[in-house]
Structures are given as structure tokens and as C-alpha cells.
UniProtKB/TrEMBL annotation:
Natural source organism: Daedalea quercina L-15889
Protein name in the entry: SNF2 N-terminal domain-containing protein
UniProt xrefs under InterPro entries: P-loop_NTPase (IPR027417)
């Protein structure tokens, strides 16, 4: 009682009109459209375990589809990179599911990629 309802914003308003091509370019992955160190395919049936050699071989030929990120997943990773580089905290708030876990793992992979990229080129990719 007496508490006002908080109207939350998305937290990514600055990116609301940015398309996927540009988002991938921001992290230097405009050619690959993938997160480094992530699988690039997933099994349609869900019966393959990508940690086993026989499953990896089977996924080359069997019923697989590309493993792609949705706009909101990619933009959240970019926003987390922005926040880290500017010393700002981040709170992921969304419905229950595995999306937020994937986003945090994606962030870790992007930071590892940035580390390797910086070692090789002495700068970060694209907008960073």
C-alpha cells in the first residue's frame, strides 16, 4: 500500500533501432554472425551432446539447424560489454528460462574474444 508502480525501461533504448548486421559489426563479428567459442549448430531433435566426438561428427551431417541469437540476446551482450567498460552494474531481468544464462556465457565468450583480439591487433574490435 502506498507504493507507486515502477515503470521499467528496457535498458537498451540507445539500440532500439539498430539492426542485427550493425549489432554484429559492433563486436567485430559481422562476417561470422556468431559468438566466438559457441557452437554454430544445434540438433533439431536435441539428442546430440556437443561434448562428445561422435555427436560432433553426427551434427555435421544429421538434422541440425544454425544456432543463432535473437536480437534481444545479442543487444543485451553488447549492453553488458558497454556497462563493463564504463564501470556500470548490470541486472538482467526477464521471464524464467535459459536466455539470461546464455547471455552471460555469451558475454564471457565475447570478453575472451576481445582479449585475444587485443593481443593480436592492439585494439578492441569495431566500436570499442
Amino acid at each position: 500500500e502506498g507504493m507507486e508502480e515502477i515503470k521499467w525501461l528496457s535498458g537498451v533504448e540507445e539500440y532500439q533501432d539498430v539492426n542485427m548486421d550493425t549489432l554484429w559489426a559492433y563486436i567485430g563479428r559481422q562476417k561470422e554472425w556468431s559468438i566466438p567459442f559457441f557452437n554454430t549448430k544445434e540438433a533439431v531433435t536435441g539428442t546430440f551432446n556437443p561434448w562428445f566426438e561422435d555427436s560432433i561428427k553426427a551434427m555435421v551431417h544429421d538434422n541440425t539447424i544454425p544456432l543463432t541469437l535473437c536480437w534481444h540476446q545479442l543487444v543485451s551482450i553488447i549492453k553488458m560489454v558497454d556497462n563493463i567498460l564504463h564501470g556500470h552494474p548490470t541486472l538482467l531481468m526477464d521471464s524464467v528460462g535459459i536466455g539470461k544464462t546464455m547471455q552471460v556465457i555469451g558475454l564471457i565468450c565475447i570478453l575472451a574474444y576481445f582479449h585475444e583480439y587485443y593481443d593480436k591487433h592492439h585494439q578492441f574490435p569495431s566500436k570499442y
